C-alpha cells in the first residue's frame, strides 16, 4: 500500500484548485477522479458566471470567498490565458414596489466589499439596454463570464507543474482511519489501497455520501444531500443584450435570468426543481414557463426562440423551504478526525470562489 501526503477526491474546478494550492505549498498530491476525464460533473454544467458577491450574507464563507476569489480569478485568467470577459450584470426591479429589495441587494453587496455598483433609473437603463423593460436596475460591473473548461485545464496544468498527479477512473469506495492517516479503498479497473496523511473530500454531489463512507469520527457529521436541478434554455439567434440580466431574487433561487457565453450566445435559466437523485433531463414543455418569466422584463421576446439547453444539479445541504446554507469546509477543528477536510454544499459561487477555496483548504493542512 502506497503512502502519500494529500489525496484530493474530485477533479472538478474546486478539487483542482485545492490540488494546485496544496502542490504549490510543497505537498505531495494525488487527485482521485472516478470519471475518465476531469471536470465532467457540476463543473461541466454551470452558467460559467464570475459572480461579484451581491447576495451572500456579510461575513459568510460564501461572501468572503466569492469576493476574494473573484479578484483572484480575473488575475488568474489574465495571467494564464483563460478566455473570460468582464461583461457586467444588471439586477432589474420591474416595478417601483421592488425598489426596496433592489436597495437591500446593493447594501448587502457593499457590505461584502463589492465596489463600483450603480443604481440606474429607467431612462439610463433604457439607454444602456434598450430591449429591457424595467423600473430601475443595479449595475454590477465586476460580474463576468469565463470558459470553465479552460480554467480547469489551467488549474490542472499548474497542479501538475508542482508535482501533483491525476488518477482518472479511480472511484473512492470507502476508507478507514489508521495510525498513519486515512486508508482509501479505490475501485475501478485496477483496485488499490492508498494511505493519505490528509484527505480532501471535494466530491461535489457525492461529498455527503463519501463523508459517511470514510469511516472516521467525522462520518456522523456528514449532512444529508439534497439535489436542486436547474434547467436552462438556449436562445436561437443573437439576443440584443450586452450584459447579464437577473430579476430580483425569488425564494429558492435567483429567478430565470439571462447569461451569455463568450461567443455571445444567450441562455436563460435556471428553472429550479427539487429531485431525489441527480438527473439532467430537460423537458421541452418547460419552455412555456420561461417565456412568461422572461417577458416580465423582455416583453419583445418572440415565440419559438427558446430551445432546450442543459441542466445542472446543485449540491444542496438544505432542503426545500429552508434558508440557504453557507459553504461548509469541515476540518479537524470542527469534526475531530485528524487529516480530513470535507467540502460540503459547494454550489454557486463555487466556481468564482475556487482559487480562494483552494488556498483556504491549503491553509488548513498542517505540517
From TrEMBL:
Pfam families: DAO. Coiled coil: none annotated. Its cofactor is FAD. Keywords: FAD, Flavoprotein, Oxidoreductase. The keyword Oxidoreductase applies. InterPro entries: FAD-dep_OxRdtase (IPR006076), FAD/NAD-bd_sf (IPR036188). Transmembrane segments: none annotated. One of its GO terms (molecular function) is (S)-2-hydroxyglutarate dehydrogenase activity. Residues 5-362 form the FAD dependent oxidoreductase domain. Belongs to the L2HGDH family. This is NAD(P)/FAD-dependent oxidoreductase. It comes from Thauera phenolivorans.
Amino acid at each position: 500500500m502506497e503512502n502519500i501526503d494529500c489525496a484530493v477526491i474530485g477533479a472538478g474546478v474546486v478539487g483542482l484548485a485545492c490540488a494546485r494550492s496544496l502542490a504549490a505549498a510543497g505537498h505531495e498530491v494525488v487527485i482521485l477522479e472516478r470519471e475518465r476525464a476531469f471536470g465532467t460533473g457540476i463543473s461541466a454544467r454551470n452558467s460559467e458566471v464570475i459572480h461579484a458577491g451581491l447576495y451572500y450574507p456579510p461575513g459568510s464563507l460564501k461572501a468572503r470567498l466569492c469576493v476574494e476569489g473573484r479578484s483572484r480569478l480575473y488575475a488568474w485568467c489574465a495571467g494564464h490565458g483563460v478566455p473570460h470577459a468582464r461583461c457586467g450584470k444588471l439586477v432589474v426591479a420591474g416595478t417601483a414596489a421592488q425598489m426596496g429589495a433592489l436597495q437591500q441587494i446593493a447594501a448587502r453587496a457593499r457590505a461584502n466589499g463589492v465596489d463600483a455598483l450603480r443604481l440606474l433609473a429607467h431612462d439610463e437603463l433604457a439607454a444602456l439596454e434598450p430591449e429591457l423593460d424595467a423600473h430601475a436596475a443595479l449595475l454590477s460591473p465586476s460580474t463576468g463570464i469565463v470558459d470553465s473548461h479552460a480554467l480547469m485545464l489551467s488549474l490542472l496544468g499548474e497542479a501538475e507543474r508542482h508535482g501533483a498527479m491525476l488518477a482518472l477512473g479511480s472511484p473512492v469506495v470507502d476508507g478507514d482511519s489508521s495510525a498513519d492517516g486515512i486508508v482509501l479503498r479505490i475501485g475501478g479497473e485496477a483496485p488499490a489501497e492508498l494511505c493519505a496523511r490528509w484527505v480532501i473530500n471535494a466530491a461535489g454531489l457525492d461529498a455527503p455520501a463519501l463523508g459517511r463512507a470514510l469511516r472516521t469520527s467525522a462520518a456522523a457529521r456528514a449532512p444529508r444531500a439534497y439535489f436542486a436541478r436547474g434547467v436552462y434554455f438556449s436562445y436561437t439567434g443573437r439576443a440584443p443584450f450586452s450584459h447579464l440580466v437577473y430579476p430580483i431574487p425569488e425564494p429558492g433561487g435567483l429567478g430565470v435570468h439571462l447569461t451569455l457565453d463568450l461567443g455571445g450566445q444567450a441562455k436563460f435559466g435556471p428553472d429550479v426543481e427539487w429531485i431525489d437523485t441527480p438527473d439532467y433531463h430537460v423537458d421541452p414543455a418547460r419552455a412555456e414557463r420561461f417565456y412568461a418569466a422572461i417577458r416580465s422584463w423582455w416583453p419583445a421576446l418572440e415565440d419559438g426562440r427558446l430551445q432546450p439547453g442543459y441542466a445542472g444539479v446543485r449540491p444542496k445541504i438544505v432542503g426545500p423551504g429552508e434558508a440557504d446554507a453557507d459553504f461548509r469546509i469541515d476540518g479537524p477543528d470542527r469534526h475531530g478526525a485528524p487529516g480530513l477536510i470535507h467540502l460540503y454544499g459547494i454550489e454557486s459561487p463555487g466556481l468564482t470562489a475556487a482559487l480562494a477555496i483552494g488556498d483556504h483548504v491549503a491553509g488548513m493542512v498542517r505540517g
